[in-house]
Automatic annotation (TrEMBL):
One of its GO terms (molecular function) is ATP binding. It holds the Pfam family ABC_tran. CDD domains: ABC_HisP_GlnQ. The keyword Nuclease does not apply. PROSITE patterns: ABC_TRANSPORTER_1, ABC_TRANSPORTER_2. It is found in: Cell membrane. Keywords: ATP-binding, Cell membrane, Membrane, Nucleotide-binding, Transport. Residues 19-266 form the ABC transporter domain. SUPFAM superfamilies: P-loop containing nucleoside triphosphate hydrolases. It is a peripheral membrane protein. It comes from Bifidobacterium choladohabitans. InterPro entries: AAA+_ATPase, ABC_ATPase_HisP-typ, ABC_transporter-like_ATP-bd, ABC_transporter-like_CS, MetN_ABC_transporter-like, P-loop_NTPase. This is Amino acid ABC transporter ATP-binding protein. The keyword ATP-binding applies.
């Protein structure tokens, strides 16, 4: 793309957001869990999502990754509307649900790491990391093995590749889970409380890997209660409560919250 078009496309000559969330709602039965979320995530940045249990943080991540369908609103990933296609009927655009293949293609841009690592217990670390590239990405086994080795080295597990999950600490298992997500070469990584299930002494090694992945330029959205990590690594802080974004800003808002609700929440976690 030449300079002029790039400038036009981006408006200001800057980058387009990697994720745009516009007035998103989610209703489960009679529960209105997300009530109009608006959020932008710039490429190569880290957004930390904070908030009390039940505020809708996991649901938001699951909508971004299309593990759930939204009730209303739009989510764009890399400029592309997720889940739907706009069809121009001549009488204005109509939305049509994407088929499974198109959704799988959109989802392949996003890697996700959960609180529980969900590794396959009967497979070694290496086999766990190779699994999706071979069976989903249709990568030849020898290439997938090389890639998995590289990703396990990246998370500092070069000497644990042939261990089974039960032979690894929780921190090591979570690092395998991160390597497994990275092996699919996502543009965006979502982390849902990746250290909440870990013994305190194992939290640091996982946060260290996440910090390194961030420094390598990954776009990340991280739900976490680790305020030190949020303050030091995230460019954007989002505080959610009861399905809305109550407060949003740079990492300074952790030390200088603008709302009573965020201040109150910080007292419970700091
Ligand atoms: P958080 O991650 O901030 O703790 P969640 O997004 O997990 O919050 O949940 C927000 C609310 O949505 C909770 O009240 C939860 O019970 C409800 N919820 C989440 N997933 C479902 C589901 N699949 N079906 C029904 N209710 C759900
Ligand atoms: Mg959650």
């Amino acid at each position: 793309m030449d300079e002029d078009r790039q400038t036009k496309k981006d408006g200001q000559g800057g980058k387009d957001p990697a994720i745009v969330i516009r007035n998103v709602h989610k209703v489960f039965g009679d529960q209105h869990v997300l009530r109009g979320i608006n959020l932008e995530v710039m490429p190569g940045t880290v957004t930390a999502v904070l908030g009390p249990s039940g505020s809708g943080k996991s649901t938001l991540l699951r909508l971004i990754n299309q593990l759930e369908t939204r009730t209303a609103g739009e989510i764009y990933v890399d400029g592309e509307l997720t889940g739907y296609r706009e069809i121009d009927t001549g009488k204005g655009p109509v939305l049509e649900t994407l088929d499974d293949k198109a959704i799988a293609r959109q989802r392949s841009k996003i890697g996700m790491v959960f609180q529980r690592f969900n590794l396959f217990p009967h497979m070694t670390a290496l086999e766990n990391v190779m699994e999706a590239p071979v069976h989903v990405g249709r990568v030849p086994k020898s290439d997938a093995r090389k890639e998995a080795q590289a990703q396990l080295e990246r998370v500092g597990l070069e000497d644990r590749m042939d261990y089974y999950p039960a032979q690894l600490s929780g921190g090591q298992q979570q690092r395998v889970a991160i390597a497994r997500a990275l092996a699919m070469h996502p543009d965006i990584m979502l982390f849902d409380e990746p250290t909440s299930a870990l013994d305190p002494e194992l939290v640091g090694e996982v946060l260290g890997v996440m910090r390194q992945v961030a420094q390598q330029g990954m776009t990340m959205v991280v739900v976490t209660h680790e305020m030190g990590f949020a303050r030091e690594v995230a460019e954007q802080i989002v505080f959610m409560d009861q399905g809305v974004v109550v407060e949003q800003g740079g990492p300074d808002i952790i030390d200088h919250p603008h709302t009573e609700r965020f201040a109150g929440f910080l007292h419970t976690v700091l």
